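Researcher: Let's do a round of design. I'm pasting the structure tokens now; please hold your answer until I've finished.
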């Protein structure tokens, strides 16, 4: 009985003080910024962040070009130009049923949208067909973008086994299993999308 209790206490301690670490690596085969994130973890939910993110339309560009948020985040779409802009998308994570048009609005107006479904969302402006951007909705708070060398680092990752996905607008997304115990390395080589 005493031994069983000790085992239970140990198990609780391990759970409470589970180590966290870093998953890092390099995304190659593509150019520009890539996004790397941990896919949904079975049995775990993450409260939606209360802080809002911002996507601006300024100088006839979406700014930033790539915005990564955790699932459940509200994004405020601003128009800082003197011309009217539109915000719309044709799919979320490839699901065309989640297409949405937020409408067209003038300078100074802001409209917000809560992204409850994970995946990559290609943004469009129907007024300016050249404008493009992406919102990447990560199912977990564990995500990172690559630097100029293609390197990324996801921090504060609890030890465990995960599916990690790398996304790039010019490449085919790739997922792999990664087991992290303090530190893990996961490199990705994405094949270029043919357009
Ligand atoms: Cu526009």
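Researcher: That's everything. Go ahead.
Model: Designed sequence:
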């Amino acid at each position: 009985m005493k031994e069983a209790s000790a085992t239970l206490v140990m198990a609780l301690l391990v759970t409470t003080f589970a180590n966290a670490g870093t998953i890092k690596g390099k995304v190659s085969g593509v150019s520009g910024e890539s996004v790397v994130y941990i896919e949904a973890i079975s049995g775990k939910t993450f409260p939606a962040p209360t802080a809002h993110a911002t996507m601006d339309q300024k100088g006839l560009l979406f700014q930033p070009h790539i915005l990564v948020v955790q699932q459940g985040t509200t994004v405020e779409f601003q128009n800082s130009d003197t011309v009217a802009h539109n915000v719309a998308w044709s799919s979320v994570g490839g699901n065309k049923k989640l297409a949405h048009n937020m409408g067209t609005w003038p300078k100074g107006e802001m409209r917000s949208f809560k992204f409850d479904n994970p995946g990559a969302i290609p943004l469009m402006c129907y007024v300016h067909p050249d404008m493009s951007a992406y919102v990447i909705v990560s199912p977990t708070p564990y995500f990172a973008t690559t630097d100029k060398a293609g390197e990324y680092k996801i921090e504060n990752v609890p030890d465990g086994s995960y599916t990690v996905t790398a996304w790039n607008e010019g490449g085919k997304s790739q997922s792999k299993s990664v087991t992290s115990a303090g530190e893990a390395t996961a490199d990705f080589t994405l094949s270029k999308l043919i357009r």
